[in-house]
């Protein structure tokens, strides 16, 4: 066995450095993308279970033990269904729209640090990259709505587009506060700036920004209570009303990938990313695994926020559209601007937790 | 070598997309071609290691401006025949703008390229150089007044746009959302306690 590994190693050493790099990065991308897609599959199961229990039902429990095979049954069902392209639609854009929705949702994972030493692309403008890609995701929705050539789809797309553009601004401003506190646009550095235990997380000094960011994230992903894009009681299913089979499955995948992405970003920006909750708690003993920063802490935080998404969906009725717009433009944006001003004054006077890092 | 291949590939794509903008008959297709063109130029900037500019181009133009553009184009029922009819009227003006652009490009590439040493393609930046930091440092120190003036002009434009489009129509019924949100159950529902009726 060891001989075999040594033999493979010797072959690997003869590969030129450029190709080594290519192979390593490609396999990293594949690993992360496949993990995200698998997580999405189980997130749909998780959602149905959570909402089921909240509504006094059992949720899926037929396929496999505890219904764990349900996501795969759903995927198989969607894969073998026919993709129907409406007659008067724009065929090329109709087919390409789901791809435009899923690509940014997966590409954003390139800069997400999953632990202290794993990130695919450690770029300096990581935060801007994430913002840029989440804003590109809206094209999938708008193009789908227009290419379908149906008034319901177009209405859904218009609602979604206006909503995403509105909440993006609040989100961007909330992130300005985060980068002021961290003094960096690099997601890894933002996490490292929060090291030193629970009390050092940005959650406390940036509490209003955290709330604005997370609620805007819910609105960005078009989830309940901001799901007027789908609004099944008014416009049937919004922009994906005519999509079936795999095309619909990809929209579904994009939506859940975005949920996981927003949860991850919230954990990284405000909850210390991979940092341990118990960091510096001496009673656990020196090398206790709970005190170590690790990917599992990040995973736990992501799972919590994904749960909150479903919790919100099970709890709140749908917002009225003018109230959504009011919340975005007239409530969230002023809050974020006010808090950025507060932060600026505090770091100028060298108050507060970030007085050391900022000017 | 590899960089050059990438550059020519994306430059060709940019050129094709730009041609698509002016040649496609459907205004929505034209807008989407413009989005593609923005993406290609962002990639060219990435190749020049100007990652901040590249990302901001995608963030601002693709993520916000073009979305609103698409909105307008999709909502308006554009009469394609009438739009195309204006070609002869607008052609002289368009040619004038194009000529100006060509003169500027020639000035930058030809005359300044001969004096500066920077004609040999993109120069690799030293290790640890951050385009984001360099831009920030220059914007907030050397060009801070120009930067602030630009910000004020943008604010002014925003205020002007809002004032121009906002009109108060008399007799319009508007909901006061703050009042609606603040409403309590006791404002809307009156619970009346009644004695139970005596059995006859």
Structural write-up:
The complex is a heterodimer of chains A (359) and B (200). With 359 residues, chain A is mostly helical. Chain A has helices at 2-14, 17-54, 70-79, 91-107, 126-136, 138-147, 151-182, 187-192, 207-220, 232-235, 245-270, 295-315, 321-348. Chain A is globular, with a radius of gyration of 22 Å. The mean pLDDT of chain A is 83. By secondary structure, chain B is mostly helical. The chains are: A mainly alpha (359), B mainly alpha (200). The A-B interface holds A 93, 123-125, 128-129, 131-133, 135-136, 138-139, 142-143, 146, 154, 157-158, 161-162, 164-165, 168, 185, 322-323, 326 and B 28, 32, 35, 51-52, 55-56, 58-59, 62-64, 67-68, 70-71, 74-75, 130-133, 175, 177, 181.
Question: Which key features would you list for this structure?
Answer:
heterodimer, A: 359 residues, mainly alpha, 13 helices, 64% helix, globular, B: 200 residues, 9 helices
Overview in brief:
Chain A is mainly alpha-helical and 359 residues long.
Model regions low in confidence, pLDDT < 50 over at least 5 residues of chain B: none
Annotation, overall tally of beta strands of chain A: 0
Shape of chain B: elongated
Tell me the distance between the termini of chain B: 103 Å
Estimate percent helicity of chain A. 55-70%
Give me the number of helical elements of chain B. Answer: 9
The overall pLDDT of chain A, averaged over residues, is: 83
Radius of gyration of chain B: 28 Å
- Largest interchain contact: A-B, 28 and 25 residues
